[in-house]
Amino acid sequence: MKTRHFAVLLFALAMSTGAVAWAQAPAPAAPGPDATPSAAPAAAAPASLPTSIDSLSWLEGCWRGSVNKRDFREHWLPLRGGMLIGAGHTTSEDKTQDFEYLRIESRPDGVFYIASPSGKDETSFKLVSVVPDDQSTIFTFDNVVDAYPQHVVYRRGGEGWLYASIEGKQRGEEHKVVYPMRRVGCETNEVIRK
């Protein structure tokens, strides 16, 4: 399968602009005075995967970000018919660098993120984990073939933040590129903090 998809655009942008990474989660707090010293820490319960894409309906609307003079946007239509449909557009100095068609759909074998950049062949990424924490929820989609990127991650942050990232190995080295976006009004382009 060809590796042309949403992530290729983001990787190319990252190579020319430098990667943006979000902060690591804070270290867990030290045990309280009532903790039993011999007790082993409890294992985190595995995150349950949604059987539908309802848990991703928050993507609806417009998102905007900018890194090193490159502006990128995603616009997601409302969840309808078991599918979210979106489009991405990247510009630099008011010239189109790339565009992509996106969709998230529920299939009998799971929830999939599908990207088709600039009308090229589509690539599917299967939702493999949903991890909530105190201030965000992280949705990880994995590519079913061994081509870069192996992972597309959408992290829903607080106050209208979205962090889209591509991750995986390329030429034997780990790469991770994160694109921070804010929710904006589709007509007004004003930041929405929700």
Task: Give Rg in angstroms.
Answer: 18 Å
Write down how many β-strands occur, each being a DSSP E stretch of 2 or more residues. 10
**Helical segment tally?**
1
The CATH topology turns out to be Lipocalin
Write a concise synopsis of the structure shown.
This protein has 194 residues and is mainly beta. It contains 1 helix and 10 strands.
Write the topology of this structure.
Elements: H1 6-17, E1 61-67, E2 70-76, E3 83-92, E4 95-107, E5 110-117, E6 123-132, E7 137-143, E8 151-156, E9 161-170, E10 173-184
Antiparallel strand pairs: 1-2, 1-10, 2-3, 3-4, 4-5, 5-6, 6-7, 7-8, 8-9, 9-10
Structure explained in plain terms:
The protein is mostly beta strands and 194 residues long. The chain has one domain: Lipocalin. It is built from 1 helix and 10 strands, in the order αββββββββββ. The chain has a 10-stranded antiparallel barrel with strand order 1-2-3-4-5-6-7-8-9-10. A hairpin with a 2-residue loop joins strand 1 (61-67) and strand 2. The protein is globular and about 40 Å long. The termini are far apart.
